[in-house]
Amino acid sequence: LTEAEVLTFRRDFPILGETVGGHPLAYLDSAATSQKPRAVLDAERDFLERRNSAVHRGAHTLAAEATEEFEEARATVAAFVGADPGEIVWTSNATEGINLVAYALSNAAYGDGDPALAIAPGDELVVTELEHHANLIPWQQLARRTGAVLRHLPVDDEGALRLDLIGDVITDRTRVVAVSHVSNVIGIVNPIAELVAAAHAVGAIVVLDACQSAPHIPLDVRALDVDIAVFSGHKMLGPTGVGVLYGKRALLERLPPFLTGGSMITTVTLERAEFLPPPQRFEAGTQRVSQAIGLAAAVRYLDAIGMPRIAAHDRRLGRRLVEGLAAVSGVRVLGSATAERVGLAGFDLAGVHPHDLGQFLDDRGIAIRVGHHCAQPLHRRLGLTASSRASTALYTTDDEVERFLIAVADAAGFFGVRP
Ligand code: PMP
């Protein structure tokens, strides 16, 4: 993207014109949540003002229009990731998507869905050492509920997955391999193909946490051949309150529901219920209609620019962040400087607590994320309790990145950092 294009896109994002403490806002926290263009805000407002209605119910005109738009939104999101609409389940966010799969797998033991999917004592679930807590704790809990064993693929000193250990960690007993496409702490794209090959060789399903890839790089679930993928709308220009669960159709058809209630059944007696096929089987209760429509508008916005171009922009800014940070004395950039990375750089400034750095930058209108980023095990492995993270989006300018780099260098001076 050229600087002129980025400046044009920025006019679509009202919040980017805000000032913080008298400084123009430099929003470098898109990995936590992205900002929303007017197209998304307008799509939600237009729906709520003119067509708001519950979907899949009622014979009236608004209900029919809302249902049509809701299903169109599903098709738009499906096309964005290379899936069929029937393979897309709406969730609240990625967290709910992962919990849905983990609970559905244990529910299989009660006779719903395909009992062959049930996780049994001694089965193994595999995560990696760099997962967000959202892709760790649901598997810990599944292991506790079922007597399965949770194993992990370690990372090396730089946070890269230890592919040399795949053969030790993924075994004949492995049933699930859960991995993030891109780490939310170090921004490196993980080697998914190797993990998928190893998992499928032993009949395990692969659950991909695509939260940090969907906004940044083209995501093709079929090309990746993952069985499940989840992501959150709010990180990819869409609204909060909506997430996406992709599942291969054949798997979703075997998977029992997680949440049960209205809108997911065919017949109900006082004793039992028959469930609808996917995706409705997984969408109990009144749906997040305006949010799904908002997310479809976000996807159209991203598509109009083109994910390959957005990826190139993020990659370039990511490289500049890493190179600029590495030049500041006392900064340790997390993750290899040469690995494929999105527009995200995690780092530590020697002896300065990330919260103090965050405050220093905030005084200049620069927003970054500080803390453990919901990845305590990875921080522990890297010898840290917390870190700082700057992340970009298609609306991030070179100027904002330079302002941030100057501010970090100034902070190093201010806090008396010694390399
Ligand atoms: N996984 C990763 C890699 C993330 O970055 C996040 C959000 N920080 C999540 C999962 C959870 O997303 P959400 O809170 O929207 O469910």
Please characterize this protein's 3D structure.
It catalyses: (sulfur carrier)-H + L-cysteine = (sulfur carrier)-SH + L-alanine. InterPro entries: Aminotrans_V_dom (IPR000192), Aminotrans_V_PyrdxlP_BS (IPR020578), Cys_dSase_SufS (IPR010970), PyrdxlP-dep_Trfase (IPR015424), PyrdxlP-dep_Trfase_major (IPR015421), PyrdxlP-dep_Trfase_small (IPR015422). Pfam families: Aminotran_5. Catalyzes the removal of elemental sulfur and selenium atoms from L-cysteine, L-cystine, L-selenocysteine, and L-selenocystine to produce L-alanine. There is one protein chain. The protein has 419 residues and is of the alpha/beta class. The protein contains 14 helices and 17 strands. The chain has helices at 3-10, 38-50, 61-81, 94-107, 137-146, 166-169, 192-201, 221-224, 249-254, 289-305, 307-326, 354-362, 376-381, 398-414; strands at residues 19-20, 23-24, 26-27, 88-91, 124-128, 149-153, 174-180, 205-209, 228-232, 243-247, 265-268, 273-275, 331-333, 344-349, 366-367, 369-371, 387-391. The strands form five sheets. The protein has a seven-stranded mixed beta sheet, with helices on both faces. Strand 11 (265-268) and strand 12 (273-275) form a beta hairpin. Helix 11 (307-326) runs parallel beside helix 14. The longest helix has 21 residues, at 61-81. The protein is globular. The chain binds 4'-deoxy-4'-aminopyridoxal-5'-phosphate. 4'-deoxy-4'-aminopyridoxal-5'-phosphate binds at residues 93-95, 132, 134-135, 180, 184, 209, 211-212, 232, 374.
